[in-house]
UniProtKB/TrEMBL annotation:
Keyword terms, alphabetized: Repeat, RNA-binding
Origin superkingdom: Eukaryota
Name listed for the protein in its UniProt record: K Homology domain-containing protein
Residue span(s) of domain K Homology: 228-290, 291-366, 444-512, 775-838, 842-923, 928-1001, 1005-1088, 1092-1167, 1267-1335
Xref: PROSITE patterns: KH_TYPE_1
SUPFAM superfamilies per UniProt: Eukaryotic type KH-domain (KH-domain type I) (SSF54791)
InterPro entries assigned to the protein according to its UniProt record, in alphabetical order: KH_dom, KH_dom_type_1, KH_dom_type_1_sf, KH_Vigilin_N
Annotated TM spans: none
GO molecular function: RNA binding
Length: 1338
């Protein structure tokens, strides 16, 4: 047959290959397939050794790989370089990819092989004629060669598939097809043709424009150009293919010969006929006989639009050209891999078509982004975990692939899949390296199984896998715990040989760290018919009464109640856990099943049984020792946990005195039954008084009402049953409060409870049901396919707007929009949608020419301006991708737009109006978009911005221009120039530029200096409240209030808290260079002066300090200012004589010459002191600061009088009866105060003191000649203030006019007497004036 002739021809040709070809081929293969996987490749090829299996494979593989390498090398990348240029500039020889090394070696071997085979060209031409003699019957008969020598194409396919299988990773499969299908897809730049053999090298057909010397009969004889022969190699067919082959031959008019090679696992189809028919037959063979495979790859979610294309065109082209089915998951169902959202692309079809489709999908995704996340799903979980635990190996991988991110699972993670993120070529290479490194670790690892009871498994895992991570970090080993519920007790440890033992010990230690004791509560009373119900009741009771918590506290353990009512006790030691478990068993044993009973009670009836504040339950417990436990609020209906539990606690004397156990059990059961009967009677009584209301609600609306029921105000007080919703049946054997009522009809809702609550709940449910029924109105609007894009809007924006505006639901499908909601709202939305459909028939497209620089301004922040235009005129505005930042648009739509073009689509009128507005906006932008870039020093930017942006904000407001500062200005050197962009009208940008120049010039004059000033001088330089600092700035011609700019000078002193800091003596000055310089020099002068200052001590009697200081410190301040010194007076001293002497020491600080002058002036203020004793009645009449005598002493003689000591006068006798207002009582003051005196202290010059003593003696003599009279007049306290007058004016006038001493009781005093003292005539005159003042206000 023809197959035998072909095999003989191939045997002859294979013998002509030189031995040197394979030596180079083996080296090239090492670049593609790691040495560790080479034996598996050989095993898949079915030959040993390697040199005997591969030589005939190499030429075809070399030609295909050479073609892919040439295409890949000439394809420009994103930066404009070809792959070969990028390799030369960025990679070393050791970093070149496996595909590049394979391609170069393959190209050399292909050339050698072609030279060897060229001599056989004539013989190969005859092969097609020999095969043409095969009849249809013979062709349809499956022939099987015993052990034929594999054809080059068949072996190539086997070689490629074996290498892919050996790598055992999706990334390896992707790399294996990258040199073929992906390169062809990039070369064509459009959709690749299925007939292009470069896209399908494994099919064995001749590549267009290239001679494939390794294909069987692939090169037709020039004399018979109308006929051609092609070879199709597929996986070995498992089912008979004769019928299918015959159908293909009938349909295409070709002859097909079939040959099987079970050793290689391939089926070869030799197709002969006219070129067009052969191509058609090849497609049919691949589509119908190739085994169906499914591949799932993930692409970034952002690239989904590029894969699908506008209206699915790109996806349809891929399916049509490759004969596959491609499904792209929706973005909403995307999986998030770390920080990159991915969507799954599922490709189903023949192996070759799937490979080509995968390459086309990757190429389409590359238009958006070349970043990929590769999941190593086929990598064993143990291998990935070992690599994650080996920090050294992981660091080496990361260093070898710095441009990718390695995501390896941590122990305890739910997802144990390794992932690689980065640019696609780098990620694929890194994925291969990760898989190889992980497999090496797994191959060299040891495996040990540690027996751990299943109850201890959780402790081996730890909280969220913490223990597993700790073991991995300490030993580099992986611990695998059997899944919960599997029943296995073997914990598997996998890791390096020297660490497995240690990891196993850590596993045992973690398992033994907590002792566990299990308690089977139901087993304590094994004969009970319902052990599970009993266990739940016992545990519920023990938990409610705090018995389990008490066990935990007494034994130091944790008691865990599991879902199946089993109990586990966790303790630090086995003895601890066992003791606690025994205590739990003892408590369960003391509570037999007949101590429990239950009744189903609707939740809203529990309050009626419990009574006010649980009074009924409390009375029941006190009288019968029966505890009623209401069910938890979250207990599922229809389960034992949802019933009201009654428990006999064992303290009822009537039962406890029964000696017979059986009789006591019967009595206990009767007690609980009686209790439940009372509950039923109560429920029946309450239920009879309850109202029942039935609502008619269609079944579709009832689930929504049931979901909203818990949120209603009175929901807990009523019972609501929905006819269409099944209610859970009570658990078998439980007591029912009453026979269950028949369920309501399917369209009914029954509300039962107190009348008021039922009315409110029923009204609310009816309102919601009516609202749902009103919203059930629906209408459909047909939307033609041609108008769908315009009507629905971008991202179906129109539907969202209709939903928000009209409060309806809008769903598009099957060429129509379904509107659902209230009838008026649906009608309004329908009218609006139909209007859009009508307008869509009047669609037009207009392209505007707008400079690309203006696109950003027309789009607006976040697309605000362009969206407003679209909504206002019902149009769609499209900018080139670079302007709008992308979107879900196909690349073909962007290709039709130039860089300076803007497309407007919509109704004719809307398009015209929108274009007019866009032109106006462009014109406005042209006028106001004048852009000027000003280079300013980077150091000046902070000055331009100002404090909290105040300066630049004011600059923008004043100039009317937009001012954009550079983003990376903070990274620029201080002396570097950066560009500030000004945008606006020419006048505005000019104003802004002038202002910027002024600010830069101002900042240029800005200077900052630091002075070393000893800390002891800081307080002096600051002054009171910073007065001296402000004075220094003002004296230098600056403005103390300005923080920056001309005339500014900021003086900064270190904080007091930083006394121990290194810069505690540093004073900082910043501001205008001229002002700063003057202030600096003045501070230096002041510091120099203060360094020369001395301290002089002057003894000034403490008694005269107040006089020297003066009122309010006036005399002291005058003295300091006059002599430029500081004078410090000591505090008043109390205690010893030494302290009193120290209190006389006054310090003067200043320059020596200033201190000397100040000392003289200070001593000049010190006066001689004399003490004069005067009778007390004279003191009262003539003394006091406001008296005429004392004022004369001060004014005429410059003598300062003061009071030293005053004898205490005897208390005046109280009036026997309440006097009348205006009553006057006279008293002889001289007689009453006889023998009492007052001491006056006089300070002044000796001569003046002599005159003062004489004057005092003269007035004392006159007073003795005319004894004073004291009169006390009774005045209503409300009039006291009138006697005093405003600021004491009236009382001062009385004293001046009469010379009398007048005393008015202080405010708040109980006394009502006003005292007047003087000679009788003066006293009477004073009383007369006082009477006049009181009468005026009466």
């Amino acid at each position: 047959m023809g197959g035998d002739c072909l095999e003989e021809r191939l045997d002859q040709r294979s013998g002509n290959l030189e031995a040197g070809v394979w030596e180079n081929a083996e080296a090239a293969a090492e670049a593609v397939v790691p040495s560790s996987t080479w034996p598996s490749v050989v095993a898949a090829a079915g030959k040993e050794p390697v040199a005997a299996a591969v030589p005939s494979v190499w030429p075809a593989v070399a030609v295909s790989a050479s073609t892919a390498a040439e295409d890949a090398a000439s394809e420009p990348n994103a930066s404009g370089q070809t792959a070969s240029e990028q390799t030369a500039s960025e990679q070393t020889a050791s970093e070149q990819t496996a595909a590049s090394a394979f391609a170069r070696a393959a190209a050399e071997e292909a050339a050698k092989a072609e030279a060897v085979v060229e001599a056989e060209a004539a013989a190969e031409t005859e092969v097609a004629a020999e095969t043409g003699t095969v009849t249809e019957t013979e062709a349809a008969t499956e022939t099987e060669a015993a052990e034929p020598e594999p054809s080059t194409d068949t072996a190539a396919a086997a070689f490629a598939s074996a290498a892919t299988a050996a790598a055992d990773d999706p990334a390896a499969a992707t790399a294996a097809t990258a040199a073929t299908a992906s390169a062809s897809a990039r070369k064509t730049a459009a959709a690749p043709d299925l007939r292009d053999e470069q896209a399908f090298p494994s099919l064995g057909g001749p590549a267009a424009g290239r001679r494939n010397v390794a294909a069987w009969g692939a090169r037709a004889s020039p004399a018979r150009s109308a006929q051609t022969t092609a070879v199709v190699d597929l996986a070995l067919a498992q089912d008979p293919v004769a019928d299918t082959v015959r159908q293909i031959m009938d349909a295409t008019g070709t002859r097909i010969d079939v040959s099987h090679n079970r050793a290689l696992g391939t089926s070869t189809y030799l197709v002969a006929g006219a070129p067009e028919q052969v191509e058609r037959a090849k497609r049919e063979v691949c589509a119908r006989l190739s085994p169906r495979v499914t591949r799932v790859l993930h692409v970034p979610a952002a690239a989904r639009a590029m894969v699908v294309g506008m209206r699915g065109r790109t996806l349809a082209d891929i399916e049509k050209q490759t004969g596959t089915k491609v499904d792209v998951a929706r973005a909403g169902g995307a999986r998030a891999f770390d920080d990159e959202e991915q969507v799954a692309v599922t490709i189903t079809g023949g192996a070759g078509g799937v490979a080509a489709a995968e390459a086309l999908v990757e190429a389409a995704a590359d238009k958006r982004t070349t970043r990929r996340t590769i999941r190593l799903d086929s990598l064993a979980a143990d291998a990935a975990a070992l690599l994650a635990a080996d920090a050294g190996a992981l660091a080496e991988l990361q260093a070898a692939h710095p441009d990718v991110v390695l995501r390896l699972p941590a122990p305890g993670d739910a997802d144990q899949t390794a992932r690689v993120q980065g640019e696609r070529p780098q990620a694929q290479a890194a994925a291969l390296a990760v898989a190889a490194a992980a497999q090496r670790l797994l191959d060299g690892a040891e495996h040990v199984t540690v027996a751990v009871p299943p109850a201890q498994h959780r402790f081996v895992v730890g909280a969220a896998g913490a223990t597993l991570r700790a073991i991995a970090a300490a030993t580099g080993c992986v611990v695998r715990v059997p899944a919960a519920g599997s029943g296995g007790d073997g914990v598997r440890v996998c890791g390096p040989a020297g660490s497995v033992a240690r990891a196993a010990a850590m596993v045992r230690e973690a398992a033994a760290s907590v002792a566990v004791a299990a308690v089977d509560v139901a087993a304590e009373h094994a004969g009970y018919a319902r052990p599970q119900v009993y266990a739940q009741r016992v545990l519920a009771y023990l938990a409610a009464r705090g018995r389990l918590a008490r066990v935990e506290a007494e034994h130091g353990v944790r008691v865990h109640v599991l879902a199946d009512a089993a109990v586990e006790v966790h303790g630090r030691t086995a003895a601890q856990a066992a003791a606690a478990a025994a205590a739990v068993r003892q408590m369960a044993a003391s509570l037999p099943p007949w101590h429990f009973n239950g009744i189903d009670v609707e939740p809203h009836m529990l309050a009626a049984l419990a009574g006010p504040d649980g009074a009924h339950f409390a009375r029941l417990q006190a009288a019968r020792s029966v505890l009623a436990l209401p069910p938890p609020a979250d207990a599922p209906r229809g389960t034992p946990a949802a019933s009201l539990l009654v428990v006999y606690e064992g303290f009822n004397p009537a039962i406890d005195r029964i000696a017979d156990a059986a009789a006591r059990e019967r009595a206990t059961r009767a007690l609980l039954r009686d209790t439940l009967e009372e509950f039923r009677a109560t429920l029946a009584q309450v239920g009879a008084a309850q109202a029942v209301r039935t609502l008619h609600v269609p079944p579709p609306h009832q689930p929504a009402l049931a979901a909203a029921l818990p949120a209603l105000e009175d929901a807990a007080a009523v019972a609501v049953r929905f006819g269409s919703l099944a209610e859970p049946a009570p658990a078998s054997g439980r007591t029912m409060a009453k026979a269950p009522a028949a369920p309501p009809a399917a369209d009914a809702v029954e509300v039962r409870g107190p009348e008021a609550a039922v009315a409110r709940v029923a009204a609310e449910l009816q309102r919601r049901a009516d609202d749902a029924a009103a919203r059930a109105f629906s209408a459909d609007v047909a939307v033609p396919a041609a108008a769908a894009a315009h009507v629905l809007g971008r991202g179906r924006e129109t539907l969202r707007r209709l939903q928000q505006t009209h409060d309806v639901q809008a769903v598009f499908g099957d060429g129509r929009v379904r509107l659902q909601g209230r009838e008026p709202a649906v009608a309004a939305a329908r009218a609006e949608l139909e209007a859009l459909v009508l307008r869509a028939a009047d669609q037009t497209v207009e392209t505007l020419h707008v400079p690309a620089a203006m696109h950003r301004a027309l789009i607006g922040p976040g697309g605000r301006y362009v969206r407003r235009v679209e909504q206002k005129y019902a149009v769609h505005v499209q900018f080139p991708r670079s302007s709008s930042g992308g979107g879900d648009r196909d690349a073909e739509a962007d290709a039709a737009l130039g860089a300076d073009e803007v497309r407007v689509a919509g109704g004719r009128r809307g398009v015209a109006d929108a274009c007019a507005e866009l032109r106006e906006l462009a014109a406005y932008e042209a006028e106001h978009g004048h852009t000027v870039r000003v280079a300013v020093p980077a150091a000046s930017l902070r000055h331009i911005v100002g404090r909290q942006g105040a300066t630049i904000a004011a600059l923008r407001d004043e100039s009317g221009a937009r001012i954009d500062l550079p983003d990376a200005a903070s990274d620029a050197a201080a002396d570097a120039l950066v560009d500030v962009t000004l945008v606006g009208t020419r006048a505005a940008t000019k104003r802004a530029r002038d202002a910027l120049d002024a600010l830069v010039a101002e900042h240029r004059d800005h200077v900052a200096v630091e002075l070393h000033v000893p800390r002891r001088h800081h307080r002096f330089l600051i002054g009171a409240g910073g007065a001296r600092v402000r004075e220094l700035v003002s004296q230098a011609g600056g403005d103390p209030e300005r923080l920056a700019g001309a005339g500014s000078c900021r003086v900064t002193f270190p904080r007091a808290a930083a006394a121990d800091a290194d810069d505690a003596d540093t004073v900082k000055l910043a501001g205008d260079r001229r002002v700063v310089d003057l202030v600096r020099r003045r501070i230096e002068d002041l510091v120099a002066e203060r360094e020369r200052m001395v301290t002089v001590h002057v003894a000034v009697p403490a008694a005269q300090h107040a006089f020297v200081i003066g009122r309010g410190g006036a005399r002291l301040k005058q003295l300091q200012d006059a002599h430029s010194v500081e004078i410090f007076f000591p505090r008043a001293a109390k205690g010893s004589a030494a302290a009193a002497a120290a209190s006389d020491d006054v310090r003067i600080v200043g320059l020596p010459e200033h201190c000397e002058a100040a000392q003289k002036a200070l001593l000049a203020l010190v006066r001689e002191v004399r003490r004069v004793a005067v009778p007390l009645h004279v003191h009262r009449m003539l003394g006091g600061r406001q008296s005429a005598l004392w004022r004369r002493l001060r004014a005429d003689l410059d003598v300062q009088p003061d009071v030293g000591h005053v004898d205490k006068a005897p208390a005046s006798a109280a009036a026997s009866a309440e006097p009348a207002p205006g009553a006057v009582v006279y008293r002889d003051a001289a007689a009453d105060l006889a023998g009492l005196a007052a001491e006056w202290v006089l300070r002044g010059e000796p001569k003046q003191l002599d005159a003062a003593e004489a004057l005092i003696a003269e007035h004392t003599a006159k007073a003795a000649a005319s004894p004073p009279v004291e009169a006390r007049v009774y005045v209503d306290p409300r009039h006291h203030r009138h006697i005093v007058g405003a600021k004491g004016a009236n009382i001062a006038r009385i004293r001046d006019d009469t010379g009398c001493s007048v005393d008015v009781p202080k405010k708040g005093s109980a006394s009502q007497w006003v005292r007047v003292e003087g000679d009788r005539q003066a006293v009477e005159r004073a009383l007369e004036i006082i009477g006049e003042l009181v009468d005026e206000r009466a």
